[in-house]
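fyi for ur records
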Amino acid sequence: MEHCVILFAANLSEYAFLPEFSGLSALDRSLLWAKNDSKSSKTVIFTSPALQTKVDAAVKKSGIENIVYETSDSWTNALIAEKTSSVCEKTGTDFALFAFADSPFLNVGESLKIISTHTEYKAEYTFADGWPLSLTPVAVDAGAAKIIAELGKTSQKSAGEKSSSRSPFWDIMAGDINSFEIEAEIAQKDFRLYRCDFSCSNKLNFLSCKNLFDSSSSLFAPDGTYDILSLSEAAEKNPAVLQGLPSYFEIQISSKCHGETSYAPYSKIFQNHPVSDMKIEDFEKILSKIQDFNEEATISLSLRGEALLHPDFADFVRLILEKTDFQIFIESDGIEVSEEICKKISDLALDSVSLKAKDRIDWVLAIDAMSYGIYSKIHLGRSEEDFKKALDSTGILQKYFPGHVYPQMTRMKVNECELETFYRFWKKPDSPTGGKVLIQKYDSLCGLLSDEKPADLSPLERNVCWHLRRDFDIYADGSVTACKSLLPDGQNILGNALTDSLEEIWIKKRSLVASHMAKNYSPDCGKCDEYYTFNF
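which gave:
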């Protein structure tokens, strides 16, 4: 069976062209991988008119001959499948080895295993499972690609119409998975837990790639080949690789709340660090610094406070919509939600440069109960009218932000009796939020609160804390803590987002990441079990 190589280079980020790997870019190294595939009869590049000149320059430098280009301004998953089938037909090949051209560490050895497995078992789709992302290609049969393309236009149209994802064939097949012969080449060791993506698709992944290459360059031969297990193990031992960049910035714009909540007792949290509401000009300054630090992030406006109680709440949302492409995450008790504020935020989104700005805003509502009796035991001092407002807020928000509203229960001993009823009610397609619901884990704040978990869900083996690796918590005065579960006082404050470099603050957390990697935990971290929960 003969195959062709397809490199997808249609939506390369600026980071794919940076020559940071011994003078080569991610695109250069992916072409080097294609060149090393001596069994391939043809190399084909899927690109866009806007990038073809830059891609062509890299191809000429690579020395690969007889490159074929397929171009489009709007690659969808279905179009990728359709063109893959067409390319196989034109080149007379049985299947395609498909990879992304922003992947600097595509592994030749594992690619050969995929080819062998695909051929031996006459598979329609073959992939490697367990390695970090972007180290291996997938193999897709010519006939299967044609069927996948058709599914992407008919029964799996929603997946097919999506703009080119990182798993275009799989996303379409997933809706009819039993119709395909699928094989997997299993990694010698499972690295999926770390969620590493060694592509140069964005700044976060690019820095992970660069940090890994700079610290492990001796593992690479001059022709770009390397041992995939050795490199993956080097990654799991490198704090700079695992930490990457923060992707979730949780910001306190308001310190006000409607009263204490049993799992968030602000009187205890802020007894040594009283704060007032954030000034809009301070937020704008911090927002600008975040954008310079990581242009792809999620911004939460709800760190330890009710964001909607800030008199300028809508202006905070407006700044994010106008100045960035960030996702917006708002947690609320729902009491301040009204038609007026929802319409105002919705109109801001419609006026935004982004046509899909409303899809960038997610709302989570801390309802926590199905009855006022249980609600009042968690949300202390709230009235039955407050509970009704919280429930009604779901329908109001769903009207303006359909599909982006999540009623939430923080699972505790006190409300465990209503967990199943809560989940079943909100999960129904005809619920006020159309089936959206979240069940949140209880956090004792490193032992500050009593243990109210009804069940221990922690894994058998402790992983490096996701919050140290991904989260950046900023209080209204600019103070930054190592993580949300730590009180904002004393040694827990790493710096100030208003006056200090965000990168320097972030690097201070690296020693904590390294300690977790060595299974050496501080007294607070040792009492915390939030390490396995993940935000964005």
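The CA atoms of residues 272 and 490 lie 9 Å apart. thats all i got for now
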